[in-house]
Amino acid sequence: MQNFPKQFKVIIERDEDGFFVASVPALPGCVTQGETIDELNENIQDAIALCLEVAAKNPQYASRIQLFSYDPVFVGLETVTINKRQSWGHDSRP
User: Fold this and answer.
1) Where are the domains of the chain?
2) What does CATH list as the number for 11-68?
3) Contact 22/40 with Cβ under 8 angstroms?
């Protein structure tokens, strides 16, 4: 098992119920939530520690980390507006 970095990039979003949701792209499946940013920070540290424990004991999860992890580079946030009506999932042929 390779040594893990001590810092991880975390993606934080807000869900439809107002909770903050964090995921760690370097650790597949490492996701948690919190009602506040402080709670989220505590929860994500616990989730990362748990994922690292599992990786140390479970070679299958450790191999998933190598296969599916990535190091995100933040580019920006974009809002996209669709101006014409689409018929998703429907055959629009006459």
Assistant:
1) 11-68
2) 3.30.160.250
3) yes
